[in-house]
């Protein structure tokens, strides 16, 4: 896997990041350090990546277990260290999984499998942060 990040020039803290897949996005620093608020901060991207990685796992595991999943949203909250390096120290993922006649035990199992076995982002970030999860299951007609 490779990526390329290029500074967008003087008098700003904006960067264009491009992945091997050809997809690109703009990252920006905070206004306090010269950013223009035109993209997410790099640490926000790490948190969003964790949400995406774990959500993909949960959806795939539930689909393979023949659960009629219709939606999956994960809301993440994180705390960072006060001192440099300001790593994540606590991360909480709250899953809202919707579907028809979903088995809550299978939802919990899918989340646990992601956290403990499949989600590379979770396992990597778990080296510095305490990561917790909870969930709710919503019935969809």
TrEMBL record:
It comes from the Bacteria. Signal peptide: none annotated. InterPro entries: KH_dom-like_a/b (IPR015946), OsmC/Ohr_fam (IPR003718), OsmC/Ohrsf (IPR036102). NCBIfam families: PRK10738.1. This is OsmC family protein. The gene is yhfA.
């Amino acid at each position: 896997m490779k990526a390329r990040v290029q500074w967008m020039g003087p008098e700003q803290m904006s960067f264009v990041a491009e992945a091997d897949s050809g997809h690109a996005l703009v990252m920006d620093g905070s206004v306090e350090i010269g950013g223009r608020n035109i993209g997410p901060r790099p640490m926000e991207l790490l948190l969003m990546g964790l949400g995406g990685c774990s959500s993909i796992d949960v959806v795939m595991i539930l689909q393979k277990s023949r659960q009629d999943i219709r939606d999956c949203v994960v809301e993440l909250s994180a705390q960072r260290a006060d001192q440099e390096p300001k790593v994540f120290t606590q991360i909480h993922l709250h899953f809202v999984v919707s579907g028809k006649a979903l088995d809550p035990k299978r939802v919990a199992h899918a989340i646990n499998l992601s956290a403990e076995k499949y989600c590379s982002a979770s396992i990597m970030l778990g080296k510095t942060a305490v990561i917790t999860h909870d969930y709710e299951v919503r019935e969809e007609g």
